[in-house]
């Protein structure tokens, strides 16, 4: 019997406008992609970005997720999920916050120091998904 493992292959974000989100992540953040794939398939339009080996970020319209999974399309809830991007130092946090601001992100928590020694800020993408950009001097997993 196959076992569920702790390895995640894809993180899929539901978006209201695939074109708008593609522009934000590709043009604003500089992530590499082949663009929108699967437009010829009903509910198939999707965008993929390669992250570290074995992990991809997918953008898929919320309406398509709802229809394909048989769940009710409700109102987005930004507080229900947050992604984090650990970076090498404090300056990288500031650089990325500046980059995402220029790309049109909403800064919901400006970069600040934390009592435990780290430093970070939080932004929302065009669909309200939260991303924390953080330097954690105790982690060792930053790029």
From TrEMBL:
Q: InterPro entries, per this entry?
A: Glyas_Bleomycin-R_OHBP_Dase (IPR029068), Glyas_Fos-R_dOase_dom (IPR004360), VOC_core (IPR037523)
Question: What range(s) does the VOC domain occupy?
Answer: 7-136
Q: Which PROSITE patterns match?
A: VOC
Secretion signal, residue range per the UniProt entry: none
Reading the lineage from the top rank, the first entry is Bacteria
* Alphabetical list of PANTHER family matching this protein: BLR2520 PROTEIN
The name under which this protein is listed is Glyoxalase
Organism expressing this protein natively: Aliidiomarina shirensis
